[in-house]
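FORM 7B - TANDEM STRUCTURE REPORT

SECTION 1: FIRST PROTEIN
SEQUENCE AND TOKENS:
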Amino acid sequence: MKPLNRINDFVVSFATINGSGSASANNLFARVVFRMGVPVSPKNIFPSNIQGLPTWYEVRVNENGYVGRRGDVDLMVAVNGQTLRRDYDSVVSGGYFVYDSSRPLPEDFQREDVVTIGIPMTRLVTEAIDNTKMRPLLRNIVYVGGLAALLDMELDLFVDALHRQYQKNERLAEPNIRALELGYAYARKQYPDTCQLKVQPRDRIGDGIMMDGNTAMALGAIYGGATVVGWYPITPSTSIIEAFGNYTQEFRLEESGHCKAAIVQAEDELAAIGIVIGAAWNGARAFTATSGPGISLMAEFLGLAYFAEIPAVVIDVQRAGPSTGMPTRTQQSDILACAYASHGDTKHPLLFPGDPRECFEMTAAAFDYADRLQTPVIVMSDLDLGMNDHFSPPLSWDPERRYDRGKVLDARALDALTERWGRYRDIDGDGICFRTYPGTHPEKGVYFTRGTSHDEYSAYTEDSATYIRNMERLLKKWETAAKLLPKPEITLAGEDPRLGVIFYGSTTPVAHEVIDHIQQRGCTVNSMRIRAFPFQEEVWDFIRAHDHVVVIEQNRDGQMRTLLINEGDLSPQKLLSVVRYDGLPVTSRQLITAMEKTLAAHGLLVPATSTATGDPS
């Protein structure tokens, strides 16, 4: 057996127990790799209970910049007895298995193609640390120290990271550093030159940052001018509101010390979106954050906002459904539910960020779009993008930027009107009408806000011609929305028209890696990343230009493919579906296998003699 020998290109998995404090230690390892200038991608795969069940934290190290989940494990750090056998079996041939040797491995752990490394983590902590409450937490730091030694990483980098982490309470830094040194010294002494996986400093980061999408979205809402939140807690979106609340204490404080923001926890999601709509109707910039079950409950009010033409911003951090589904698992499973939320002929603009910077930018822009279009705008994230850290370009904000509040008449504009104003009159042909804020004028600009059919002056009507005229105007506004929203990102590798690939959202980094692999197989691949719905003419041009178009997504039914077929009146045979929906962040090896199979079936690629294996998890 030849052990794996790689520099800055491998996957580490930490198998621990939920609620044991291991996530902080695992994140410490990922942050140090990043500070060494090497791109890294951590994924926290955790259960929906509070503590006690198995959890895995994967860290992909790849200096070439592939930061999507790869699949398979090169080095396993196993400290959970419940999953020891599964973790042992998941290591690839030639890989490394690090375990807590305070207790011996079962006798049947006899793989000859795996390097086994025992570090007595529990014993080392017990002998050196008097504080019994801290011992379970510090055991996690012991294995981080051991890993640092095995991978030839400088101990000082970890010590510095711990000082940063505990700068507000230096007393906690000392025992953590002690535990780190215990693991490092033991591995150095007992296993010199045993592990051939190494992390070496590089300069591949530039000005990039590591950030989770939920935090970026909270900042986007702050910079986008939000002052009102109506919400009901739901995994995996809750941390958006928590972060927004924290940031308001920095960015929304008046000289008096009062916070110029209202965060209202409602009794349910229906009430939450009602708060948002009411606040936006009054002129505030308001939003809510939720997930699939919340979207289901909000559907009726979203239809009201669409028909009454009231701005609202909704952030949907998607998780696995249907129903309660798997609350701590990721999917792109709310595409159709959000696009057509509510009954009747209803459509909502959707935004699809692909990294934390776009989470920030698109959330901030969503408030402009909602005000300009006078309609709900939904930002489509998911658990992977929202809760995991991602390598991303830095966030930036133009200090000269001004909010687009759309077509709002103030008192002076109302006085200057020479003809009767109608709330639902389209006077300039873009489908968007002028509105007023409540209390703008003592006499003019008053109207009823209706969820029932109405004429141009907001009077109730059941006249068929008037109803059709209003519905067709809303379609004209939909065409205007397509011109405002972000256009797709298209990459042309050549003039070969046979194959195009479409992807969106959190699948972006993996899709790039898969496309590179397919092109190395000799197949030209043009690609398009969809960033918004409604779809622009560029989307249809791209699809028309290719014989076959593969749509990559994370749901069972190919919802983006369905949306494209429906909106573009396309032949289903034109779009090929490659999907993964196991609830885990999609891996490049999974998609490579699926893509090769799909392309081979359509004569676009000669079947590989040996394809990449799927992720055993």
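SECTION 2: SECOND PROTEIN
SEQUENCE AND TOKENS:
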Amino acid sequence: MFPPESEEGNIEYKLRVNELDLDHLAGQMRRRLLEGGGEAIYILGVTDDGKPLGLGEEELKRALSTLSAVAERIGASAYLLRTSEGIQGRVAEVLIRIRAGEDRPPPVVHVVAIGNVDAGKSTLIGVLVTGSLDDGRGRARAYAARYKHEVLTGRTSAVSTRLLGFRGYEVVNKELADPLDEASVYLNSDKAILFIDVGGHEGYLRTSLRGILGNGPDYAMLIVAANSGVQRMTKEHLGIAAAMGIPIFVVVTRIDLVPIDIVGKVVDEVQRLLKMPGVSKMPYNIRDESDVVVAARLMPQGRIAPIFLVSNVTGEGLGLFTKFLSLLPKRVSWSDSGDALMYISEIYSVRGVGLVIGGLLEGGTVRAGQRAYIGPLDDGGWEPVRIKSIHLNRVSVGYARPGQYITIAIDDVKGLRKGMVLASRPRPSARAVRAEVVVLRHPTVIKPGFTGVLHLKSIRSPATISRIDKGALMMGDVGVVELSLARPWYIPQGERFIFRNGPTRILGKVVEAY
């Protein structure tokens, strides 16, 4: 049985497909595609209440042919995912994906790669985006590196991004002369995965937090090495992702290095970790393509945590994992309405262009040539700027929509910092925050005057706890605190944040910023 069909969302049940009513089917498909950000799932042979009656072989062939014709009519493609036995016939699941074009950019799913240092995060991303297996000595890792010292040391220290493009199930990157050319990947794909690779070493945690919190990831990809198992930073990164409500899937790498019984012990360890209070995920071991389809469909709910076993050297398990990525739906939905808003995650100075800022556009739209504001500055004010040009995945575009990670060339701004905001109008500047908090970790007692660093989106700011409703807090306590900030920031109500100092970890939710 399937759950009852919902009027909202991108999943449509069809017990029968009326070959004479193509206009109605086309309108319905457009709506489902809109709900899914460019993707929809059609399940044929199922009633609206979820009963899998199934279709006969000939009837199923006609239904699939009609569905393909409807998709073609609206500029989309249909891909058969799988068929299964129903009560009276076969049930088919079909992926409908809009074809990318000049006015229809491909949906981009943001996946942040987390896990302990040396677990193989960058190596896995390098293998996926190039289509070339690793040599066992880190050759593939270099393709995901951002700086020379990362190539030399094999250790990621900064947040880097790589784009993996799909056309149907096929990876676009490996068809290109340069698989790392993000512009070519973007323009030739009907779906893309943007990998956000963050450092796994404890010394780079503050940078990793900016990568996790500041890029609006749809999902977190937790990497665990089979030859080292679950480490302290594995738990640290998993706890942060779970606390921020990001759905998680797990990839166990290096399965070629250890015996199968050791791999099994690592998987058992991962399963216990996922079931722990505060994480509370349902482990789901992936064994075949049917598991892949089910896991991808259920991922946005955040309840399950699929576990993949792969080797970057032999290629074992990469086929199933790649198909999973191709089916992974976009989870975070964004609205074009409202004012433009973008937290600044990156700042560049480009020769011949000038000042360039990068970040995730979280609201409204921005266009080349329009006026905007940057702030808050150190005095709480906002400075007007002109948007000179916009690039999306290294492609020059005239405008950008919410949910897209973009770079923007602007007029020079003195005192520009990461964590400041590009907005269509000045926003309120806050020097203090009242928040509901839970102490995840602290060795002693927290009292007013305790200082640390506030991590909220791409903001990283020194802050001091000036008031606690209970007077003091210990590990596991819940309370309301007031934080005094070292400088003004734009902080919306309801945003989650991490407050840290050494081993201390406090999870908070903004009640009021003033």
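SECTION 3: OBSERVATIONS ON SECOND PROTEIN
The chain is about 20% helix and 35% strand.
The CA atoms of residues 46 and 52 lie 4 Å apart.

SECTION 4: SIGNATURE
Preparer initials: ____
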